[in-house]
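Morning - magnesium ion inputs below, output right after.
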Amino acid sequence: MTIITLANEKGGVGKTTLATTLAAGMAARGHQVLLVDADPQANATIAVGAKKRPGIYDLLIRDAAWHEVIMQVPSKYYNANPQQPSRLYLLPGNVETRNIASSISDVFAITNRLQELEGTMELIIIDTSPTPSLLHGSIYLATDGIIYPTTCEALAFDGLIESLRHREEANKVRNSKNMAAFKTLGIVPTLYRHTKEHEDNLKDLKAAFPGLVWEPLPQRTIWTEAARKQLSVFTFDPTSQAAADGHKLVEQAERAIYAIASA
Ligand SMILES: Nc1ncnc2c1ncn2[C@@H]1O[C@H](COP(=O)(O)OP(=O)(O)OP(=O)(O)O)[C@@H](O)[C@H]1O
Ligand SMILES: [Mg+2]
């Protein structure tokens, strides 16, 4: 089982879009996937067509059993021919997620609860909020690898640098507990346009993080339309350019996840 987290302390850079797209794409490729909505905005919960509920709060604070909080996302979210039972699950969230940080007593609570799914889930994808909190620290302790979406703008790079700083702090804690440091799977330029500003900033990003920057995900209105219809781009319009971009993203993620899982 591999646990990956989408993070960037800048809002609106595509964390939820990538979390839901990767969850959809990996489930479509036959993996058993759990999407965890750790953002009080609960955008991932809504995006996959579920209702906001205190799933992650109940799991971590009320010690709920997994079967009480987890739900199956219908296969129509990710599969254009949904005959088989869905392989995609959701741990939903709502505004109560904000109270987890002040109520949690054990920083390893998330690690311990997620480890209960070993043998049941192959991949866990955690969507986080842009506002840093103690919850992020606990998530980082549970995480094997992080994907950082970023727009190619200076302000988004600031959010990225802050997230990377917090990553180092979390890795110090992991080190003190004899845990391996978690990996950066990749930095994904999102909402990308072929303007001089974006092209220049992409070059700077690649120079600052050699080998870590993935293929940019171009800005296309279909991403927002699909989210509004509570479908992935793969089922909203399977023949669209956005769906093709999404497939490339999932292939890259699958390779990166395989690399850390077999390391
Ligand atoms: N490649 C893209 N092309 C066009 N629109 C996009 C693309 N990627 C994301 N969007 C849109 O940009 C908006 C912000 O994306 P998203 O919600 O994924 O960001 P976020 O980082 O999760 O935001 P927050 O920090 O508020 O949680 C959404 O409306 C989404 O549909
Ligand atoms: Mg989000």
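Note: The domain at 2-261 is CATH 3.40.50.300 (Rossmann fold).

O.
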